[in-house]
Every structure is written in structure tokens, then in C-alpha cells.
Amino acid sequence: MFIKxxxxxxxxxxxxxxxxxxxxxxxxxxxxxxxxxxxxxxNYVVDKNMDERMWFMFPIRSSNGKxxxxxxxxxxx
Length: 77
Prior knowledge:
Blueprint: E1 2-6, E2 23-27, H1 33-45, H2 54-57, E3 70-75
Antiparallel strand pairs: 1-2, 2-3
């Protein structure tokens, strides 16, 4: 299981149902939750463009990435 907090996110693929743009998404990432946690941490703390490394850091290959594995969303008001 992987839980990610999204702050001020307006992308409707990631936030399909919250009136607020602050929410948690919960994902079922088979054997990838720890690597996604570390990759998100690196992406957050590194102050440079990481686009060239996204294929390596976030390895789920689909048009929606990890969003295809989302279980639920917890909206914050």
C-alpha cells in the first residue's frame, strides 16, 4: 500500500472527485510502495528537473501510471 498527499492539485486524472484540491490518494502498488515512497521523497527534496529520470523512479508503465492502481481517495476540506 502507498499513500500520497497531494497539495493544491487540480489535475482531474489525479483528483477526480474532491472539491478541495488537498487530498490523499491510496494505491495498491504490488511490491513498489517502498520504491515509490523513496522516489517521491527524492523528487521532493532535489532542486532540479528530474524528468529524464522519471522512467526509472516511477516504473509503472501505463498511460495513467500509478493512478491505475488507486484504491480510494480521502478528501480534505
